[in-house]
Design a protein that fits this description.
CATH architecture: 3-Layer(aba) Sandwich
Largest sheet: 6 strands, mixed
Number of domains: 1
Number of strands: 6
Amino acid sequence: MRVKLDENLGERGRELFAEAGHDVATVAGQGLASAPDPQVIDACRAEGRCLVTLDLDFSNPLVFPPSDFPGIAVIRLPRRPTPADLYAAVRVLIAALDRERISGKLWIVERFRIREYLPELRDDNLDSRETDG
């Protein structure tokens, strides 16, 4: 899997993905540190890389529709996280990437689970309103 790690994941995060056989690029390594979010996600799209980040801004599907990107994985940590919390969540993500495709999806990754954003299905019948006439 081709992934891009946001600047908040560090060298150890990169090592974990690389050890698992993933093609890893980093925001910092590509000169995108402190770049605006749209620039980061556009680079991911252009390179065909899933974004892995701690930045909760990327968890907003109205701003970053998952279907437009090769995948977005937002890692959520507890209130007072330790490095062990981060590495456990990264390992959960790595295991999931070995089983499932993330392309076009938004995953919220926690230490023991992954929640996937599923857009609400639209019922076209709900849009037609009856009026009294």
